[in-house]
Amino acid sequence: TPVTHYVPERFIKYIQPHCFGYYIDTKLLFSFLDETQVPLVWTFHDAWAFTGHCTYFDFKDCYKWRVQCKKCPNLSAYPESYFYDNSTLNYNQKKHLFNLVKKMIIVSPSKWLGNHTKESFLGGYPVEIIHNGIDLNQFKPTDTESVIAKHKLDGKHVILGVASVWSQRKGLADFIKLRNNLDESYIIILVGLKNNQKRNIPDGIICIKRTESIAELAGLYSAADVYVNPTWVDNFPTTNIEALACGTPVVTYNTGGSPEAIDSETGIVVPKGDIESLKSAIIQVLEKGKVFYTSKCRNRALLLFNKSDRYSDYITLYNKILS
Question: What order of strands is seen across the sheet that includes strand 226-229?
Answer without folding.
Answer: 205-208, 186-191, 157-162, 226-229, 250-253, 267-270
